[in-house]
Amino acid sequence: MNDPASDALALTARSAAPKAAVPLPSGPIGRLLASVGNLSYLLNAIHTQYAQDNGLGTRAIHTLSAISEGHVTPGDLARLMLLPPSVVSGDLNQLRDAGLIRRGRDPRDGRRLVYGLTAPGETMLAGAHRLFVQLLGEKLQSHPDAEVASTLRLLYNLTRQLRESMG
């Protein structure tokens, strides 16, 4: 049986949760930060769930995608993903053990290790891409093509400019 006093106390505790000490900036920058942050969180949650449903670690799909885009050395991946090389190495070992990537020597510099997707890795990544196309495709279709194109250009340019400013 519910205790009204306990219910009221729980509701008070939830509503008295601390507010963010430093709120997001207001105006377009604040709205952009909130929107991109929320979208990033949701897309990451989809990636993570897909990876976990397939017995993989939380960064697996990100790593497979990065390798497929040409970031084939552990150092490239660490810089791209803003992670310590030791973390990336652990992720690469797990993906290799799962048969999703292969490791070899760089033909131009035999001292460097390079990674590539195996056929099962390509299949895994294609499955993740299909899921995103399904989920996002119908949402994007509800917006005019020019609006989508403009938004994509803006996001691409902001990403490129921010990455360049980080060195």
Question: Strand count, sense and closure of the main sheet?
Answer: 2 strands, antiparallel
Q: Give the CATH class.
A: Mainly Alpha
Q: Tell me roughly what share of residues is in helical segments.
A: 55-70%
Distance linking N and C termini:
60 Å
CATH fold node name:
Arc Repressor Mutant, subunit A
CATH architectural designation: Orthogonal Bundle
Output the structural class.
mainly alpha
Could you report the average pLDDT, rounded to the nearest whole number? 87
CATH homologous superfamily name? Winged helix-like DNA-binding domain superfamily/Winged helix DNA-binding domain
SS elements, strand count: 2
Number of self-contained structural domains: 1
Overall radius of gyration = 21 Å
Tell me the fraction of residues in β-strands, as a range.
5-15%
Topology as a string of helices (H) and strands (E): HHHHHEEHH
Unreliable spans are 4-9
Shape: globular
Work out the oligomeric state of the chains in this entry.
Answer: single chain
Q: Supply the number of helical segments.
A: 7
Strand order of the largest sheet: 1-2
